[in-house]
Design goal:
It is a single chain. The protein has helices at about 30-40, 45-50, 55-60, 65-80, 85-95, 100-110, 115-125, 130-140, 150-155, 165-175, 180-190, 200-205, 215-230, 240-250, 255-265, 275-285, 290-305, 310-315, 315-330, 340-345, 355-370, and strands at about 10, 15, 20, 25. The chain is mostly helical and about 375 residues long. The chain folds into 3 domains: about 1-110, no CATH class; about 140-210; about 215-370, no CATH class. Helix 11 packs across helix 12 (about 200-205), helix 15 (about 255-265) runs antiparallel to helix 16 and helix 16 (about 275-285) runs parallel beside helix 19.
């Protein structure tokens, strides 16, 4: 078969003759027709698509990431019927450089069923494979929610791997599939409690959904004490910390005064965005609803929160990304966020669908919590 980079094909009507499938493809050297052909291939009825596996395999090798993405869409529709080209799929997966398409490959693998797990398991257990490829295989396993136990069984040996990256990410992916997996939780606790382990902070994040989440509170207490002592400025990485603290809620009450002091120190000096300000304030209140400082920050935030107005004029891209998150946190505060209703209600008419949906859910939570006001 010719090199796919030189093959450009056009789909013509498919016919069935005496029960035999007639190839629907002819070839053309026009790039636009290549994309169209891939689009038509991906849209074929599944009963016909399974006869075109060689074409799908060819599309996986195309120079265009759009064509490769269409091939992946076809594979999703084929499901286990795509197993005959599984080697082509994995070869393309390892070679993929485009980040978005790489992620699309990972999303596609579970559609192939157990055949993918077996293939990934071989890679993980083969210590002669490159560390990068083994790690990619580990990370892909976390996608198999439809076959979670099979994926966990294949990941468990990774917990004992000599490569610390493989062991950590193996535990991380297991916890995505089963947050109460004993050995994975135990490994994360061990890593978390070792201050010299580079994965300590990430292990703390991974423990948040587990029964051991209380262990991470001292980490955040120490973190913000250190930030206050050194004068460290807020960074984008604080986003993940705030998310985790929101999940911990009142269990992280000890962090609230430190976070209040830190926010007070930096909110004006560093120009924290309006919506980000709301998120910080709401995080404090979710940890300690009686926090006077947190309530003060909350009121200040509402005074300047202009989510519904012109996004280009009043908010940076960062603010735009924060808007649905800030609204969601307001809703999670329940009745204590009733002051936010006059600001949230106009957002039901916001042009951005993400903001409208977030506002609907937030208002629902606040009103139901208030007895259906």
């Amino acid at each position: 078969m010719c090199c796919i980079g030189l093959i450009l094909y056009t789909l013509v009507p498919t016919t069935l003759c005496c029960g035999q499938f007639q190839s629907p493809m002819s070839f053309d050297e026009d790039e636009g027709k290549t994309h169209l052909a891939a689009q038509q291939l991906a849209d074929l009825p599944a009963t016909l698509l399974k006869h075109e596996l060689p074409r799908v395999a060819d599309a996986l090798k195309d120079n265009s990431f759009e064509v490769r993405s269409l091939a992946l869409r076809a594979i999703k529709r084929l499901g286990p019927d795509a197993e005959p080209i599984i080697e082509d799929i994995f070869t393309a997966f390892w070679k993929e450089k485009d980040t978005a398409t790489k992620s699309a490959f990972e999303e596609t693998l579970p559609y192939l069923g157990k055949a993918s797990i077996i293939r990934l398991s071989r890679i993980i257990s083969n210590t002669k494979e490159t560390a990068t490829r083994r790690l990619q295989a580990v990370m892909a396993m976390g996608r198999f929610h439809n076959l979670s136990q099979d994926a966990i069984n294949s990941l468990e040996p990774a917990l004992q791997d000599k490569d610390k990256d493989i062991a950590f990410y193996g535990a991380q992916q297991i916890l995505l599939l089963n947050k109460n997996h004993g050995p994975a939780v135990a490994l994360m606790v061990t890593i978390f409690e070792d201050p010299h382990n580079a994965f300590s902070g990430l292990a703390g994040d991974a423990l948040i959904p587990t029964k051991e989440k209380g262990r991470v509170v001292p980490l955040y207490v120490a973190l913000y004490r250190q930030k206050l002592a050194t004068g460290e400025k807020p960074t984008v990485y604080d986003t993940n910390t705030l998310y985790n603290l929101c999940q911990l809620g009142t269990e992280a009450k000890a962090v609230a005064p430190l976070l209040s002091e830190y926010l007070q120190k930096h909110v004006e000096r560093e120009g924290i965005g309006r919506n980000t300000h709301v998120y910080w304030a709401c995080t404090i209140l979710m940890m300690d609803s009686s926090s006077e400082q947190g309530r003060a920050f909350f009121r200040q935030s509402l005074e300047v929160l202009e989510i519904a107005k012109n996004r280009e004029k009043n908010g940076s891209r960062l603010d735009t990304l924060w808007q649905p998150i800030a609204i969601d946190v307001l809703g999670n505060l329940g009745p204590s966020a009733r002051e936010a209703l006059p600001i949230l209600e106009p957002l039901l008419e916001a042009p951005d669908s993400r903001i409208r949906h977030a506002a609907i859910e937030a208002i629902k939570k606040i009103r139901i919590s208030n007895g259906g006001e």
